[in-house]
Amino acid sequence: MGSISKRLRSLEKTPMNETLDDNDSGGCDNTDRISNLPDSILCHILSFLPTKYAVATSILSSKWKNLFPSIPNLRIRLDDSLFLHPESVSDTYLIRFMNFVDRLFNITLRDVPCIHALHLSCERFDDGRHISNWVRAALHLNVKKVHLQIHSSRNSNLLVDSLFGCKIECLNLTFDFIQHVPECRFSLPNLKMLVVQGMKFNSVNKIYAGCPLLECLVINKCTCYPGQTIRICIPTLKVLVLFSNFCHQKFDLELDTPKLERLHYRGSMADCFLVNNLNSLHMAYLDLCRNRHQNPYDFSQHAAEFIKACVNVEKLYLSENIITMLQHFPRPMPQFRNLLFLTIRIDTFGWKFLRSLLNCAPGLKNVFIIEGFNEECYEKFKSSLPESMLHWFVTRRGKSYFWSSN
């Protein structure tokens, strides 16, 4: 970022089309070739810069003056840290940030018909009234995607209310400060993708309850109260990514997602599962660890229950922790009639479970084995297979092995 700023300042000092004489330039041609590029290419270059620097190019010459607002699929990326100097903690820079964003929406983008995305990150700026006004201004410009990373806010309800009823299709939220859920209102009638990070689950529940068309939900490191039930009951949901981090407390998980096709569940194992409908699921990625209060048998039972709910999948990933627990669970594995692709991370003791899993997946075509592979274990494993599987072959890819029936 510093090098870009220095380059822009150096360009301000030198006229864009000035050619130095040979004695000063060493015979080099100092013609401004960048400004002579077509506007479409210049706009493409500007689209990769943070908004602060992209807007600053308008002072270089009349050629650059109106380029930024004309960028196709314009993405606004605003970060208050770009206005802070490491050696200073003065609020002057935050005022400069506020004034810059005000001018951006009220003047620079005033005649722009639409913007593709707004990414607003506020580490120190906490005026919820101004932030909500910026969000409303972006919504008036028909923004499609909004990413808000706000770490603290005064007048936080104004910020939340600014999203009420908006027609955006993708929303990424990191709100560390929402505590008073009853005062928050959410209605996002067109939203299809929601990413929430670092929030409390009671706030998350209120958000997606107001999203009747939601298809993709990503929940990353959100917190819940001890003993709380995490309910994800969304009839339209197709993709669920759940990164839980509740290793110190008990919690239950309820899923009612009849159209869910892809599940990525990583983190702490729930104490109780209530899974009503996963019949549409065709891909599951399961990387779960035991909560500190769970004994090994409970973890094994919970893992088996959740695996049983995923019997219709075509693609399955199982982590080493799950394998370790499942191989000690006394009940037999369910039948995976549709399973075609299996990725499994095992240690040297996981081969016995793999053999049991192969017997439960008659249509399995490919197995990707990550680590835990040595020739002695493989030979013992191979000798225990039925004759119908002896035609399978294994190939090595780095530290992993690909096992195929083809």
Automatic annotation (TrEMBL):
Signal sequence, start to end: none
Domain F-box span(s) in chain numbering: 31-78
SUPFAM superfamilies in alphabetical order: F-box domain, RNI-like
InterPro entries assigned to the protein according to its UniProt record, in alphabetical order: F-box-like_dom_sf, F-box_AtFBL13-like, F-box_dom, FBL60-like, LRR_dom_sf, LRR_FXL15/At3g58940/PEG3-like
The protein's name: F-box/LRR-repeat protein
Lineage of producing organism: Eukaryota, Viridiplantae, Streptophyta, Embryophyta, Tracheophyta
